[in-house]
Specification:
- The chain is α+β, with helices and mostly antiparallel strands and 78 residues long.
- It is built from one helix and four strands.
- It has a four-stranded mixed β-sheet with strand order 2-1-4-3, covered by helices on one side.
- The protein is globular, with a radius of gyration of 14 Å.
- The model has no long low-confidence stretch (mean pLDDT 85).
């Protein structure tokens, strides 16, 4: 069985280019019910798992971890 290594919140780091951050901010402005960006891993069918980035409407207790907030752009990991 594969060992799962847990990391602390302080060890998590995500960075975006300025262009990517501006693009995401535009999506958030167009969707006022969304509060930030969430990165997660989802089952994608026969090919296994894939990375997903989605705008989020709420923070899920005990599931979402804030890993970055630059220029009013909250970024969470699932």
């Amino acid at each position: 069985m594969t060992e799962v290594k847990k990391v602390s919140k302080e060890q998590l780091n995500i960075s975006l280019t300025l262009r990517a951050a501006d693009h995401i901010k535009q999506f958030l402005e167009q969707n006022p019910d969304k509060i930030g960006l969430r990165f997660l891993v989802k089952k994608t069918g026969c090919s296994g798992y894939g990375y997903v980035a989605e705008l989020m409407a709420e923070i899920r207790d005990h599931e979402d971890v804030l890993v970055g907030q630059d220029s009013q752009l909250p970024i969470y990991l699932d």
